[in-house]
Design brief:
The protein has 345 residues and is α/β, with parallel strands linked by helices. The protein has 14 helices and eleven strands. Strands 5-2-1-6-7-11-10 form a seven-stranded mixed β-sheet, sandwiched between helices. The protein has a two-stranded antiparallel sheet with strand order 3-4. A two-stranded parallel ribbon has the order 8-9. It is globular and about 65 Å long.
Length: 345
């Protein structure tokens, strides 16, 4: 695949003045510190692929950063930027790859990027973050009150750090007020297809999805998620309740019985539990049961009915509905996808 240069009206390409009005300026950020080169490289490839296969180029694509060459921490490769941030006065789309490490340290290393990103957003640019790149936007306060996604494995930490954001941890792609975020790992390819459809149309987005073999319109990352209850809080009674649920999930018990076990009143304790774990007691129990069911469906040869009873359900419809709510597919669909030796029931 070869890069296609944008068409200019007889001006110096380096100055990038007066390019065709229909071209969308894409600024791919190469931040300081550790980040996903894969996010950056494949994004550039896909936008270039569209330029090469559309009737005429649609995107003006640049990698920009705080230095001319960025070598992500712990990586074998370095990234050469096309321009420095202060050289870009205006762009249409800012794309932030997954950034790794302590969010406070990441934002500190990239402090000079913050006012530039804020300025571009205020001037009408779209912002997009990939996977845990949402922490970068969260650190800037840009996700407060907005729906957003990140890697399912980072959801608990994200909620703890940015409680004002509305995290849709089951979503592959979230959109809110011109800010686009994606779920974990390779879910960023679905975000790219989503952006291509928005900027270039459905037909081109489908063409790109086929060329890169991306499952278009995939909406949920729930089938990939592994539920682990949030336990970084300091509420000892809530931790005790979590341990009780995880040890007795196969049994039948009520919320009142859990509260009796802990020795606290129901109303205040339910509030403390939700604040500490981001789940109600009922939701926590169901998620523990469903996670246990997933493991049995993946590894065993039991029927769905047998698994249902093993994890504490006695009603087929209730089990199916709860499973689909938290996993995004039915128990049979899940078993058929992840258990190579699945039997028919």
């Amino acid at each position: 695949m070869h890069s296609v240069k944008p068409t200019y009206w007889g001006v110096d390409h380096d100055n990038r003045i007066s390019y065709l009005a229909f071209m969308k300026r894409i600024s791919l950020i190469a931040p300081e510190g550790e980040f996903s080169i894969v996010n950056l490289d494949l994004s550039r490839q896909m936008f270039q692929w569209v330029n090469e296969n559309a009737p005429s180029p649609i995107f003006d694509i640049e990698i920009i950063g705080l230095s001319h060459e960025v070598k992500p921490s712990g990586q074998l490769y370095s990234v050469k930027t096309d321009r420095l941030v202060h050289e870009v006065s205006h762009t249409d789309v800012v794309i932030i790859p997954a950034t790794f490490g302590n969010p406070e340290e990441v934002i500190k290393m990239n402090q000079e990027l913050v006012p530039w990103v804020m300025k571009q957003y205020d001037n009408g640019a779209d912002l997009a973050s990939m996977c845990v790149g949402a922490f970068f936007l969260g650190s800037m306060g840009l996700l407060d009150g907005k729906r957003c996604s990140t890697h399912w494995g980072a959801a608990n930490d994200f909620r703890r750090l940015y409680p004002k954001a509305i995290l849709e941890d089951e979503r592959i792609v979230s959109e809110s007020d011109r800010i686009y975020t994606s779920g974990g790992a390779l879910a960023f390819t679905n975000l790219l297809i989503y952006l291509l459809e928005r900027y270039a149309g459905r037909e081109i987005a489908i063409m790109a999805a086929k060329a890169y073999m991306i499952d278009i319109d995939r909406a949920s990352q729930s089938p990939f998620a592994v539920f682990t209850g949030l336990k970084t809080h300091q509420d000892k009674e809530v931790l005790k309740a979590q341990e009780f649920i995880e040890s007795h999930f196969q049994e039948k018990f009520t919320v009142e019985e859990i509260c009796e076990e802990i020795g606290l009143g129901r109303r205040s304790f339910e509030r403390r539990f939700k604040n500490s774990t981001a789940n109600t007691i009922f939701e926590y129990l169901q998620r523990v049961r469903i996670e246990a069911a997933k493991k049995e469906l993946e590894n065993g040869m039991k029927t769905v009915s047998q698994v249902m009873y093993d994890v504490g359900y006695s009603d087929t419809k209730a089990f199916r509905d709860m499973f689909k709510r938290w996993v995004g597919m039915t128990p049979i669909e899940y078993r058929n996808r992840y258990n190579k030796e699945a039997v028919t029931v």
